[in-house]
Amino acid sequence: MTTPIAVTIAGSDSSGGAGIQADLKTFSALGVYGASVITALTAQNTRGVTGIHDVPPDFIAAQIDAVFSDLNVGAVKIGMLSQPAAIEAAAAGLDRHGARNVVLDPVMIAASGDRLLAPEAVAVLRRMLIPRALVITPNLPEAAALLDGPLATTELEMREQAEKLLALGARAVLIKGGHAEGAESVDFLVQSTIVARLAAGRIATSNTHGTGCTLSSAIAAGLAKDADLSEAVREAKAYVTAAIAAAERLAIGHGHGPVHHFHAWW
Predict the structure, then answer these.
(1) Which position among 210, 222, 241, 257 bears the catalytic label?
(2) What is the mean pLDDT of residues 70-93?
(3) What pLDDT digit, counting tens, does each position of 123-140 carry?
(4) Rounded CA separation 79/175 (Å)
(5) What is the CATH number of the domain that holds 122?
(6) What is the DSSP string of 44-57?
(7) Which residue is catalytic, options 208, 222, 241, 257?
(8) In terms of residue numbers, what domain contains 164?
(9) Does residue 84 belong to any structural domain of this protein?
């Protein structure tokens, strides 16, 4: 018997809606054992981020070594890595252990608008982690920042930006249209020879805290269970859409509330 295992390399959200906490909830909800490598502590709630305490790079490396030397990790989700040295430590750790099925969520800004990635770290993320990823999952502002370009405003521009990100070395790009307008929330999964348009009805809600973290970790959960990338992405989008729709059943905080990770259970 084998147990599907995924690890999240990301920051901690003290309010539990995003980051490591959202990732572990997602893994659990989708039947995957979750391990974690904490890259930063944040003092954070649904209203915003009031402080960031970065974990030293050598301790990030120590956590990676501890997890990968003992657990049979089937997929890796990478989230908040706020400093260049942390990105370098994560990249080196992935190489050291031959990590597979790497899902990179290039976390730059929280749902509250607070910056989570140092400006000087963007180029390091682009150079060191994108080429190591099976798939990257930027939203529209993140895609624009990675390309140092304008925000995509049409589906054609989204596809064009995804193609440019693919050229940076990732094997696939899931560009997310949650920040766009319209009745549908449209994402594009772009691979070297395939483009898939993934649409879901847009849900009018302010409970969007942790949606990006949840989607990327849901993709990693699918990959850990041996789904192919297209299947993992489609199932992850369905899970997140349902979690957003069910968020109104929760009463958490006074700002951007979290999605309901366990909507199928309680």
Answers:
(1) 210
(2) 95
(3) 899 999 999 999 999 999
(4) 15
(5) 3.40.1190.20
(6) EETTEEEEEEEPPH
(7) 208
(8) 5-249
(9) yes
